[in-house]
Amino acid sequence: MTWKWSAENDPRNGQVGNIRGYRVNDNRDSGIAVIGSGYVGTVVAACMAAIGHDVIGVEINQEKLAKLQSGSSYFFEPGLDERLRAGIEAGRLTFTDDFDEAMGKSNVVFLCVDTPPGPNGHPDVTSVTAAAKSIGKAMHSPHVIVTKSTVPVGSGNWLTSTIEAVLPDVVEPDVFSVVSNPEFLREGSAVNDFLHPERIVLGGDNADAVRTVASTYGPILDQTFPGGAPDRRPALVTTDRSTAETIKYAANAFLATKISFINEIAEICEWVDADVDEVAHAIGLDSRISSKFLQAGVGWGGSCFGKDVEALAATARAHGQEPLILEAAQQVNLHQRRRLVRKLQQHLRPLRGSRVALLGLAFKPNTDDTRDAPAITVARELLEKGAIVRAYDPLVKQIPELPNLQTATDAYSLVDRADAVVLLTEWDELRDLDFDDVAARMRGDLIVDGRNAFDAKRVREAGLVYEGMGRGLLPRNGRSATW
Ligand code: UGA
């Protein structure tokens, strides 16, 4: 690595916080270990190798390890397999289940194990604890431990104590330092988000350790890797650990709240016959609001928003605070799923015995992830209410929680003899259905667009009844006046 960073040559003047003014001359090659090869860890490992580092990924699950060693991921993430293969072929990326090997070959360790929802809203840190102990036991040389796993605020201190407690006797406790580096990767565009971030956040009390991690990100900060965009360099934010940990939760909570906000507006729109998509477009033109994450629909899902909003709320409660906005965001989100089922109840009378075809099961397009997917709640409620439910998703072929949910092999065979068709994930291939064909195949005529992704006019022209989320109660064929 040749990246050098000094206050004088740093173009992000004013953004480097408490480590401005240091001159970094010690940019020796960093060996990187990535602990945990899930959605985040695999992307970190593949992309760090892509920007020129020697990377060793650790995965203790033998089946997953074998797949990764052969150059392919065991989950769907666009662009990831190519990067994995390129890294392995270039000799810069390896995977192992051996912590000693990983610690021996690295001086920077990215901790990327999962933190699933745990008791009382707090994340379950079992995997982080286990990984921290394995790291500590295998530490024989200086390391910076970088937490990418989303951990409760204050975990940096707890992690430090956990590692310290198991260090080999001959090693001094200051052999390592913990830096918080929250991830802002979206599933489906994680590779791009990693290589072209808008900001990189580093939180730590040891300036040397923070600088080491910043150096590791050098080619991304300067966008000098092949395919980099030097005119769009990310901001670097350095701060203390608790603030960095809080930034992660606040970012996800804000995005989730923004979606819940527009979904509440969507419901109001239905009662006053307004169109939420036009409202979102117009308010989003105000740069203070911005149009991103204002897409109304059946609400947010996935492994992050629900867990992180709940964790932040639990932190607030643990300190005697009432997290009113966070709780409202959660309630509004669950309400969307119920509201969608209610639309079906209103049209299909009775719902019991009606055939409902669900388009999309993943929590969003371009992923096979169904964790906390709105589709699962909707399917479960419909089944409980006696509807006959089938589903089609381009990638998801079964839902372990709903073993009785039948799936079809394509969208058109799915809608055969359906009374209602419901869009729950706006995959590109589902947005542009031939609605004449759909209408000819259906027994009923109801289309519920849970993502406001269909062209309502085309649906109605096919003789079908269109119900969106916040697109007004009356039939509408494009409402804007022509000038
Ligand atoms: C989210 C954040 O966007 C990432 O920045 C963060 O790193 C990640 O969580 C994480 O904590 O690991 P992700 O869960 O992959 O990423 O997906 P998003 O693209 O944020 O979508 C989340 C949900 O919100 C999806 O169900 C999506 O359909 C829904 N959504 C999104 C809306 O309903 N409306 C919108 O306008 C945008």
A few lines on this structure:
It is built from 18 helices and 14 strands.
Question: Overview of this structure, please?
Answer:
The structure is a single chain. The chain has 483 residues and is an alpha/beta fold. The protein contains 18 helices and 14 strands. Strands 3-2-1-4-5-6 form a 6-stranded parallel sheet, sandwiched between helices. A 6-stranded parallel sheet has the order 11-10-9-12-13-14. A two-stranded parallel ribbon has the order 7-8. α12 packs across α13. It is elongated, with a radius of gyration of 25 Å. The N terminus is likely disordered. The protein binds uridine-5'-diphosphate-glucuronic acid. The site of uridine-5'-diphosphate-glucuronic acid (UGA) has 20 residues, from α10. The site of uridine-5'-diphosphate-glucuronic acid has 20 residues, from α10.
Tags for this model:
single chain, 483 residues, alpha/beta, Rossmann fold, 6-stranded parallel beta sheet, disordered N terminus, binds uridine-5'-diphosphate-glucuronic acid
